[in-house]
Design a protein that fits this description.
The structure holds 2 protein chains of 2 kinds. By secondary structure, chain A is an alpha/beta fold. Chain A is built from 16 helices and 22 strands. In chain B, strands 1-2 form a two-stranded antiparallel sheet. In chain B, helix 1 packs antiparallel against helix 13, helix 3 packs parallel to helix 7 and helix 4 crosses helix 10. Classes of the chains: A alpha/beta, B mainly alpha. Chains A and B meet through strand 5, helix 10 and strand 18 of A and helix 8 and helix 9 of B.
């Protein structure tokens, strides 16, 4: 795979990039380059400066200092549009697609041609051929909302290829994919480099990086700690220590499994999703005190709706009991009062109020009770004391507890949400994708917290797309596919490939 | 030159009020330029407006009379807007409040000769209830069926006006004129001038008890918003309704309650206007107080005490409007102020960066 990876002039190069934001130097004299026909992986914890760097490369930000060279010539991108015109395209983690339009329409959106009439048949054929060439399986005539997350990602990649991108930047493309889809993406990436494209690949998952990348650059706190080292001959342990600045990160030891009585009981739940289509079709499961049950599923198979039903945020048919008390179709306040904690998948859209302060966000689940409230009145000093305590004990990095939470980094926001949910001393905890997009250090901290809760006797439902995480943390893994439980395995003896097959409807 | 917007992360506390003030100054300058353009003398016009509005004790009193309905409707609108509940129906709620208060003495619900200490509170309750009922309609439609409250509350304004017209042209008409008979004096809110016998200095000052309603309610609203669970819930819903639901708040119920209170405040404004100023019900009782309240709410950035200040400024502007030619000028100034305030919001939330073209080499 390194046959074409030795061209002398890099396709895209960044030299001495400096970018500062208030209070932080996100990029401190960063050098980076990607050659024609190679995959260059960019590794680093949250806040290491990877996103800043690729946002500069793709025209989103302007660097304070430093230079960008395209095929050896200096360039300045004032906008993503200019970058893509020069052949540099970025696929973001959050997709920018119009759900009600077709794949073809989304790809043509914003282009100057065709000028007046959308000759969709012709464009569809063109896009179909392009998709074929790179092994990006997707129907050009399908509407976006009908597609899985993996397919939507392919549309985003196609969008960039159709616009003539020679250099593709993929920001954590595998975070939302099932194992089989990851393999497919890896094949696509290899096809692309064979046809002379260059790929900058951002990931947290060391296994994937080692499997697919030609060279690897590691960043930490705005600086490059490993500059373009060849992937061959590099070990996971080596990369980890360069990422987190210390030697070994191991999955915390799983404490002995001593389950108590069933606390959370879900019986034959049926519910519709946001689009009014059935999302849950008869799901039943039990979670015991001191047990972590993992839900393995590819995005869009009902796991989000399951979490919402248990936390009484979505109407359903069937029964959900917490310690024998029915909560389904009740108020979410009732579920909270019964001790249900919820770490929602959508941290900014559901889990927090972005323009309110850290304090206001931390008291969200307990603002009705003493000491935060006395009757109708709120006790501001008491709320602040609680916020300061949680900030310290959960190491939430924030300028102050009055800071708006939209200014926190992803990892810190997740810590804040976990701090709030765990502080309530929950009987049941529903954690949806609690580690998605977080760095190795933060993931380790969150797994420790889950184990602590488990030891305290909390019944935990852990929803994750990361099978390695589920197998390491959960006591039992249930696989969900199209709104049903497709299989249930004790984590100790589960076979990752069998689970992967069930997740994608095989097996 | 290229214009870039970057989110502002470190705005100090003084920034937002200063920007509001700057927006008002900017609006006055733009208005001045337009005035000059149509052949007026902007400096003289503004000096004249200031004199008419604030030039003497009597002028200030008249300004406060105009400010009173604005304070009450402005508080109502601000409360709803804080929750991003777009109650555009303060005008109708104001009219219904005026009607409800009038009903007490015109049906009559209380017999003639009932003393003021009973009639006035009864009219307050009736005004607030009628205004609240007019807020309940868009509230329940939004809460239960998800109907857009902007449309419903706006349309209800026209229904309210027709309702008032029916009563003043029909059952309550005084000798065929489009107004009712004058209320009995027990149904008049006390004014400063009523005490001129003891304190001659108060003679001619028409400020009435309605102003006190406004100030007291602003204080109550401030405490409710800033110091209670209820205010926290409104803040949370206003910022992120999905997070509020996740926190266990019953949003539908909250929408209904806030809409009713918002309507009740506007209704009390209507009550205060018929009992404090006009002393009878007319179909032209409001020159658009409920709509001006929207500008007031924005100018005050939904803060109860700031609503009082903004209402006094606009009260002066409305008062001056009667004396300024061409008569559209104050309305124009109001409009430009609203545009400037809303526009300044961008500057509060974003930093603007001008960048020269650094052309690709």
């Amino acid at each position: 795979m390194t046959s074409l990876a030795s061209a002398p002039i890099p396709a895209l190069e960044a030299r001495g990039i400096v970018k500062a934001f208030p209070g932080i130097v996100a990029n401190d004299h960063v050098d980076f380059d990607v050659r024609v026909g190679e995959i260059h992986a960019l590794l680093g914890e949250n806040g290491a400066g990877k996103s800043t760097l690729v946002n500069i490369l793709s025209g989103m930000y302007r660097p304070d200092a430093g230079q960008i060279l395209l095929d050896g010539a200096p360039v300045t991108f004032r906008s993503p549009r200019e970058a893509i015109a020069a052949g540099v395209g970025m696929v973001h983690q959050h997709f920018t697609l119009v759900p009600s339009q077709t794949v073809t329409e989304n790809i043509l959106l914003g282009l100057k041609r065709p000028r007046f009439l959308l000759r969709s048949k012709r464009s569809e054929a063109e896009i179909g051929a392009l998709a074929e060439q790179f092994g990006l399986r997707v129907d050009p005539g399908a509407k976006i909302w009908q597609l899985s997350v993996g397919e939507q990602q392919r549309v985003e990649i196609l969008k960039m290829l159709y616009r003539g991108a020679r250099i593709l930047i993929l920001d954590e493309p595998t975070a939302v994919l099932a194992p089989q889809e990851v393999e497919e993406l890896e094949r696509t990436m290899r096809t692309m480099i064979l046809s002379g494209h260059s790929i900058v690949f951002i990931s947290h998952k060391l296994t994937e990086v080692l499997a697919v990348a030609d060279r690897i650059t590691v960043m930490r706190r705005g600086k490059v700690t490993a500059a373009a080292i060849p992937a061959a001959g590099t070990s996971k342990a080596d990369l980890t220590s360069r990422m987190v600045g210390r030697a070994v990160i191991e999955m915390p030891e799983r404490p002995p499994f001593q389950p108590g009585p069933v606390v959370l009981s879900v019986k034959d739940i049926h519910a519709d999703g946001d689009r009014g289509l059935p999302a849950l079709r008869g799901v039943s499961l039990d979670v015991r005190a001191g047990e972590i049950v993992g839900i393995a599923a590819v995005a869009g198979n009902g796991q989000t709706e399951l979490a919402q039903v248990i936390t009484a945020m979505r109407a359903c048919r069937g029964s959900v009991t917490i310690g024998g008390v029915e909560v389904a179709n009740g108020s979410s306040g009732h579920a909270i009062a019964l001790g249900v904690a919820h770490v929602p998948e959508d941290r900014t859209g559901v889990g927090s109020a972005p323009n309110l302060s850290v304090t206001d966000n931390l008291i969200m689940k307990r603002y009705k009770e003493a000491p935060v409230a006395h009757g109708w009145f709120m006790d501001d000093p008491a709320a602040r004391t609680i916020a300061e305590d949680l900030r310290t004990s959960f190491s939430i990095t924030t300028p102050s507890i009055d800071t708006q939470v939209r200014l926190l980094s992803g990892g810190n926001l997740q810590r804040l949400i976990l701090a709030r949910e765990i502080d309530a001393g929950p009987k049941v905890m529903v954690a949806a994708q609690p580690t998605r997009g977080l760095d190795v250090g933060a993931i380790e901290a969150i797994h420790r917290i889950l184990f602590e809760r488990r030891a305290e006797g909390t019944a935990i439902l852990l929803i994750s797309e990361d099978l390695d995480e589920l197998l390491a943390v959960a006591d039992r893994v249930d696989v969900m596919y199209e709104g049903r439980i497709a299989g249930s395995f004790p984590a100790a003896t589960a076979d990752i490939h069998e689970i992967g097959l069930l997740m994608t409807g095989g097996g | 030159m290229n214009l870039h917007l970057e989110p502002r992360v470190d705005a100090p506390r003084w920034f937002s009020p200063v920007m509001t003030l700057a927006a008002v100054v900017f609006a006055l300058i733009v208005s001045g330029i337009i005035l000059w353009f149509v052949g007026g003398d902007p400096v003289r016009a503004f000096v004249h407006i200031a004199e008419v509005a604030f030039g003497s004790i009597g002028a200030i009193s008249d300004t406060l009379v105009k400010a009173t309905p604005l304070i009450l409707t402005g508080l109502g609108v601000s409360l709803a807007f804080r929750m991003r509940l777009w109650n555009i129906g303060a005008e109708g709620q104001f009219l219904l409040g005026a009607w409800g208060a009038s009903a007490i003495v015109l049906f009559p619900i209380l017999p003639a000769g009932t003393p003021g200490v009973i009639v006035i509170p009864a009219m307050m309750v009736a005004g607030a209830l009628a205004g609240g009922a007019w807020g309940f309609i868009p509230g329940i439609l939004r809460a239960r069926l998800g109907v857009n409250e902007i449309i419903t509350s706006l349309m209800l304004n026209y229904i309210a006006l027709s309702w008032i017209q029916y009563w003043v042209f029909g059952p309550w008409s005084e000798g065929g004129f489009q107004e009712t008979k004058t209320f009995p004096p027990e149904a008049w809110l006390p004014r400063l001038t009523d005490f001129a016998a003891q304190f001659p200095i108060l003679g001619g000052l028409t400020v009435h008890l309605g102003l006190i309603f406004g100030i007291v309610l602003a204080a109550i609203m401030w405490v409710a918003l800033e110091r209670t669970r209820w205010g926290y819930e409104i803040k949370l819903i206003g910022d992120n309704p999905r997070a509020a639901r996740y926190a266990g708040i019953d949003i539908a119920r909250k929408i209904l309650i806030v809409f009713v209170i918002s309507g009740a405040l506007a209704g009390l404004g209507g009550m205060s206007e018929v009992t404090g100023v006009v002393h009878r019900l007319q179909d032209r009782i409001s020159p658009g107080y409920g709509f001006t309240a929207i500008i007031i709410a924005y100018l005050a950035r939904f803060g109860p005490f700031r609503v009082i200040i903004a209402s006094i400024l606009f009260g002066g502007l409305i008062l001056a409007g009667r004396e300024i030619q061409p008569s559209g000028i104050p309305a124009m100034v109001q409009g430009i102020v609203l545009f400037s305030i809303i526009g300044s919001d961008v500057l509060v939330r974003y930093r603007i960066r001008f960048e020269r073209h650094l052309v690709t080499t």
